[in-house]
Amino acid sequence: MSSFVNKTSPLIINSLGDLELSYKHYETTVGKLCKACSSNQPLQQEEIEKLHRNVMLQYVKFQKSSAEFANLCKTTTTSSSPKEYEIYEENLESYEQSTALEGRVSKLFLALNHTIRTNYPLANIAEPDLRVGDIRSTINLEKPSKHLAKFPHFRKILGDGNCFYTSFTVRFLENIVKKSNDYEAMIKFIRSDADGVKDKNLKQFVIDTLTNLSKNPSSLEKVLKDNQIILPLVRYFRSIVANEMLVNQKTHEETFAISLLGDFPKDADTLFDKSYVQLVHDYVSSMGKDATNISISILCRMLDFPCRIYSDELPKPVDALDGREPKAIFIRASEHYFVAYSKTDKVPFEEKAKEYKKRDPMAGKDTVPDRSSFEISDEELAFSLRPVSISPKDVTPAKKIRITFHFKAGTKNKLYIRGEGSPELSWHKGIVMRHVSKTKWVWETSCSDLSSLKFKVMLNDTTWEKGNDHTLKTGENRPEFIPEF
Fold first, then answer.
1. What's the chain's Rg over C-alpha atoms?
2. Which of 167, 235, 287, 384 could form a disulfide with 57 if both were Cys (CB 3.0 to 4.6 A apart)?
3. Are residues 213 and 359 part of one domain?
4. Residue 102 resides in a domain
């Protein structure tokens, strides 16, 4: 900025500088907490919630500081003199920079929440934005999409990367309320472990939620407006898909790769550097990642829940389960999903929405909650200025391990690795190793405790190599082996 503005309007410069420092501190804090969530030695959920509270306080403080800075810019632009106009232009530039910082802060907060929800589905953390909106009429829309105009009503869903799964959750719960048979079938599906989900607490949460809804159907809209219920359900549905893809890797691997290339073209350069297990984790299990076509198909099939999708990119709708009357209709416009209701759906859901609004005046507001609703005291703000302290003994840095086996397997054979000590490894099912050259097979992982890592390879995941389990010594990050069969 010019020296004229530095001299004439120091308040703007100092405020922007303070805002930038606040952002850097916030960015560092969020980064530490994300690493803590993804560590091989994760913190307890209560500790994560406490640390997240600290981050949330910083988030709210930044929002308030940004608003104060915007008002400061406005108060220095009241005159039309040449000098004041020059100051106005400089202040406008500062304002635009602060707006960009505010956007980055919001993205970091959302990314942090996605990371926590991925690893701690039931964590009680602040979620500023409503995921599920009210049912609305399409009649008064100025520019409805070409497919949305066909339906009398729709429901807005927040575009946070989970929009398909959130849309699916909404219609799934609405059907549970209407049909007791669907409720009973779902409870049986969960309790028989047909879902493949290993998190017992999450499974029980889903059972409790569905049971409460079946007993109190009038609470549906209140449930849909509760992020602390909807987001764990979204995580549960993601887990169902991820488990199916891992258990039946041979069935899904090729289709999944094609789907990723089509849905995430910007990631094409890095996709083939990751194992299949890692890709399933990053693009299916992880919150905030858009649903792929194969994920949608698997979810609908696993839950016997046929869906029809109208996309602005396609002339005709696509059915997730061909030949079945859809239980849900979704609109996909500008890479975003939301719910559409047919004429037969209109009356009961509209009445439920009206009934809920009578009980709760705030239920009709489909906007981002006012930031002032996050009330914090001066003491809490002072506490939020202190950086999050995560002890090194709580978060052991994971080491990148590259394991190489030299073996000439032939054109029709593959090497698989099984073991323990890494989240991806299992003694029950092997992971295909990456074939990097004629006789070289590689598998990579991150591990904070090498002493816990044990593994062996199998030919075509059917024939074990001879000898004892392989183990690694401290500092042995790139071991190489020659297996015998």
1. 26
2. 384
3. yes
4. yes
The whole-chain average pLDDT of the chain stands at 79
Looking at the structure, do residues 246 and 294 belong to the same domain, yes or no?
yes
Q: Are residues 183 and 312 in the same domain?
A: yes
List the one residue out of 67, 32, 138 whose CA is nearest residue 394: 32
The span from the first CA to the last CA of the chain, in angstroms, equals 70
Q: Which residues of 415-433 are buried (b: 16+ CB within 10 A; e: fewer)?
A: bbbbbebbebbeeeebbbb
Q: What is the CATH number of the domain that holds 153?
A: 1.20.1300.20
Q: What share of the chain is helix, strand, coil (3-state, %, to 5)?
A: 55, 15, 35
pTM (two decimals): 0.69
Residue 472 has phi, psi (to 5 degrees) of -120, 150
Question: What pLDDT band is residue 162 in, cutting at 50, 70 and 90?
Answer: very high
- Is-contact 337 168, C-beta < 8 A? no
- Cα dihedral sign for 107, 112, 116, 118? positive
In this structure, the answer to whether residues 81 and 140 fall within a common structural domain is no
Distance between CA atoms of residues 197 and 240, nearest Å = 6
Q: Are 203 and 237 in contact (CB under 8 A)?
A: no
Are 342 and 434 found together in one domain?
no
Q: Are 91 and 85 in contact (CB under 8 A)?
A: no
Does one domain contain both 140 and 67?
no
